[in-house]
Amino acid sequence: MSQIVSQNPMDITIEIVDEYIRRIPEKTLRLARDYIYEDRCIRKMSMPGRLIAELRGYHDSYIPHFELSADLWQGGCTCMRPAPCAHVGALLLSFRQHPEQFVFPPYAFAMALQNSWRVLFEATTGVNILRLMPEIAPWWMLPRKIAHTKSEQMALDNLERIIHQPQMLVDLHPSWLDDPSILNAIKGWKNAQLIRKPGLLFWIKLWAYNPFLPLDHIFSSFPDEIEALTSQILAELWNPGVIPFPTDRQWHRVQRLLSLMELIPSVPIVFLWDQFAAMDPLFLARTHALIRQGQMDQAIHYIEQHWPEDAQEQHIVRQALINWLPDSKKLPYLIADCLETGSVPELQELKKHLIPEAYEDLKNLFNRRWPSSYES
Q1: pTM here?
Q2: Which of 53, 113, 257, 307 has its CA 20 to 30 A from that of 129?
Q3: pLDDT for 55-107, tens place per residue?
Q4: Rounded-to-integer distance, Cα 319 and Cα 108, Å
Q5: Measured distance CA(250)–CA(109) in Å, rounded
């Protein structure tokens, strides 16, 4: 069994797997290929720095896994044979042939680990936990473009069904949200009684595990209860569990949980965001948090204090402020962006906000700076 408990954010690639496969003796690889030929590798999961599955052997089932650490990689298996065994070889060959069949671990599997990756390798307990992952990844866990080719159209019947089978919702692959019917079905839940049935903590944990879900409206059904769960929300922020998250999933996770903290006026939201500063290099998340808390002037003062020097980053910040601020506040940023980027659509937009004399002055200045961009 591997002694590495990897938190390495590096993705496992075909190249890494190939390098490890080359270390496996040919006799062992022949046995591994037999396992693949007979479809004995099931319940296949991947996450940053880790692959894991169940291998149905000829006499028992085993849990092979492959892990990265900061400077090496290695495999292990519950068969306890000297590494690398044929079960690990089959795991790697399966990933080598069909990486799309390896999915992010389901919510039920993550919850059952109880903050201990080691429990997965404890005889009966480990197998029972692993089997919370279906033998073959269900279509809603697969990328939409893959699932559409092999399964029926997805149907989210009603909220009650989702609550009773939370894996259908929490394990939804984010690519399904590109389907407007699915996105609108989730956003359209209005039955407060059904929403409240599982309790606020259920939704907090669910959102923390799959932060791509558009569940903002769910929490309006708990207007007076979020503050009472402040400690649980903070615990989710600082103790995400043993399943390492991909970078984009982790960013959304932090953003979602901190958006709940914004609903509590006494919470120092900028201070909390400062603890995750690497995820907000342009200070935009902190600025937006202040705006959503109704601290408009403080937000403007804050972002002005942290204005970037790079021209492209300045453009990104200005565009964000233009989208977030009311007309009375965004005008200076719209004018600056228009003049700095030569944007004709922005110049035309400014005609709606300026008196004719001011607009003519702006257009003349624009034409001097960008003579080939705009024709009077």
Answers
A1: 0.85
A2: 257
A3: 998 888 999 999 886 556 677 899 888 778 999 999 999 999 999 999 999 99
A4: 40
A5: 18
Structure tokens given for 19: 């390098």
